[in-house]
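Batch 3, record 17
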Amino acid sequence: MIHLEKRPQPSQVWTVITPVLAVILTMIVGGMMFAALGKPPLEAIRTIFWDPLFHPQFAGYSRPQLLVKAGPLILIAIGLSVGFRAGIWNIGAEGQYIMGAICGAGAGLALYPSESVLLFPMMVIAGALGGWAWSMIPAILKTKFGTNEILVSLMLVYVAESILASVSSGLLRNPDGMGFPGSRNFQQWDAAANRELIANTGMHWGVVFALIAVIAAYVLFARHIRGFQIRLSGEAPRAARFAGVNPNRIVIFCLGTAGALAGLAGLFEVTGPAGQISIDFNSGYGFTAIIVAFLGRLHPVGILLAGLLMALTYIGGELAQLMLGVPGASIQLFQGMLLFFLLATDVFTNYRIRFGQGAA
Amino acid sequence: MKRRTLLASAAALSLAAGSAFAQDKVKAGFIYVGPVGDGGWTYEHDQGRKAVEAELGDAVETVYQESVPEGADAERAITQMALSGADIIFTTSFGYMDPTMNVAAKFPDVKFEHATGFKRADNVSVYSARFYEGRAIQGHIAGKMTKTNKIGYIASFPIPEVIRGINSAYLHAKKVNPDVEFSIVWAYTWFDPAKEADAARALIDNGADVILQHTDSTAPQAAAQEAGNVITFGQASDMAEFGPVPRVSSIIDNWAPYYIDRVKAVMDGTWESTDTWDGISTGMVGIGEISSAVPADVKAEALALKDAIAAGDYHPFTGPINKQDGTPWLAEGETASDGDLLGMNFYIEGLTGDVPN
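Prediction for the assembled complex:
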């Protein structure tokens, strides 16, 4: 017989081991899936995890792309982790990301064709405010009326998507675009473009902000009283209240931080890699960041690594499609496995396995 | 050759290697917006790719990437394809326009072909099909067949191509049935079976007995089949599995001849940047078998219309046509210019509702 025995304390060792174990299990089972599809499993795994970094033909291009892809994921995931630690489940980062992009881009386009050096900083602030304001809707509804932030924030994603469709074919549409939906392209407008800061590194302002967010979150949780209050609210809400922590303030702070960071991510994406507001501008970063936050154990450094790993599976997955002809859906399955195994192996953090007739 | 060159670590050898690999295959890449199994738009592009392989055999190698989002990811997907040594890359959706232009600027030796866009460069061609010609025939059949006089239209995005289709279908339905009304639902997607099915059901609940679609999945066909007494038309692909009812005919995109031509041109070194907009006459737009559910006289009229368009005797947009607000667009006997059609962003007179903006 096998028993699960609850540990008195979550195991420190397993907390570190489970993500690695999950990656290894994903490689094994994913390899079996590729084999079942008639593709060479080892080559597929190598293409996904190794080639984007070291392939002589692609690595020069795909290595910088890792940062481009990981930047928004990390930025959003850091914001989400602040709330998740407090037990505040913001599922709507995708909507906050969209609204940040729309507000930031809109603020810039209102001044087209300004070449002021203040333009880009102004757009950054507008982007953060846009995401923040969108996250204040679930925050205020929760604090005033006790609504569930999971539902409200998720539903607001669909509202944001509709607003995105509307502004790309209306308010923000490129007047020189022959009637096609989509805004002006920021890559062709120097003052508003979020360019690579150092050529061929993929390092743009969004990546810089992501790194700053990682450090700030680390300091917040390790050193700052607010970080302690957040953790306390999540782990022992009653104790937090006795200690004088105002739960409403925590809700506002956590959702606001997540919203502002998601908004920033959206702004940096629309002015950089994406280039323009278009109907399909959002590509699921807000949802993928939830996976990144948990894969990184809600720890800032963990999230940094998880974001890079997730970016690797995206870019490697694209290469595998291109080089080996594996179907696009199998890559999504592969990424799904990663989260599944992470949650499955998580059991070892909180439980110990006992063999034989142990006293349960 | 490019691929070999890149693979050879010693750059000095590349020139010598170039001639040694002179008989190297031409590599053609395809970027798809949906999955190859969508049964519509992407499926037909993939049929075109397979036709290239079948026609040119060992002289060509094809690669593709499916479900590439039309945002930041598209540029990377195209770049990686170019890096992998593709000689010609077909980007098969409107949203790939700016990414295609960006990548083309970085790879002057690779040829790019962008579907349905309007930006060109020395190494970027554009190509599209005159789907509105097929829409005219659809409109004719729809106007004749509807009993409730309500026709539902599932539109994707408010771009000229889609608006042209709506106008063309409406014009020809109205011509044969002055009481006909169009209800247009904007789905804001090219491929989302659940959304498309919802749109179809909503239109049917409102009394529509003909459903036209400008989205790529077969979900509206299935919804019409379920409802009964509703007819539909296959979009992009024949969708024959839904015939004889609800699917009574279809517009088929046939990209194969164009793709074969263009890949051959790369092989022969005769490739040039071009702007292609073909219709029924060259076979780029095909009209699927008109099923037994359509009365013989209607079928004969529809086929006559098709022949007239193919022969160039009839242009689907022939005046007098007014814009929705009543201002004249085309005078008696005047036909629409390609420029007007390419930038079309207005409804014609009689359509209700607004083009979303």
